[in-house]
Description:
Layout: H1 6-17, H2 27-34, H3 38-47, H4 53-68, H5 75-82, H6 85-96, E1 101-106, H7 111-124, E2 128-130, H8 136-144, E3 149-154, H9 161-172, E4 177-182, E5 194-198, H10 210-227, H11 229-244
Amino acid sequence: MAQLSLSERKVARTFLGGYPASGLESAADLARRSEVSTPTVLRFVTRLGYTGYPDFQRALIHEVQERMSTPVAPSATHTADAIPAHEIGRTVDLLADGRRRIRLAGGRFSQVLAEYLTTRLQVVRGDVTCLGYGGLCRASAALDACRRDVFVVIDVRGYEETTIQLATTADAAGAPVVLVTDQFLSPIADFADVVLPARIETPSAFISLVPVMAVVESLAVGVAERLGDAAAARTARFAAPAARG
Length: 245
């Protein structure tokens, strides 16, 4: 991801979000869904080391055939495979930067994960706030957004207009936007600085937030490890009152 242009990164996210079917359609169709030109898709596959789109598709078909010969991995494993290390690393860098204010928000069902990540981050660093679902809190945060803020938005199907608007306003203010979404990609992916897609499909009528939770956990652990001794010292201070009680 770090070596791709912004347009090529959009192709990569669309491809990973619909892997493997997205890579089996025509270059023109992949370009249309990525909202880029067909030449951008062709540049993307050559950047990956393939001689052209047919060569890319042959490699993809071979990979799919190999996966079909082994047991199907759970969604959380597919999620881990689909998120480039660059995207996780970039997010951890932003969340571990003590000069930044962290603002988190989710949708109707994903708000609980935003709240969970907030509590995990508050243990290891300061200036972390979860924006309540809807209402004045989000409007105020959007109004006050600036470049020193980082907005972590968890938006899965069906993407909610109020959540999209919050991210749009934050982006317009120059604040980096980290999007945790599903494989179909929230509209926020069009402008987010980082996109972390999780596979949420299940055999039932409900989506599963378990893979999204795996992404949230990996971010919390990554930030704690990045902050090192500072995180350990803050965690100890949190534990001290409980020990005295």
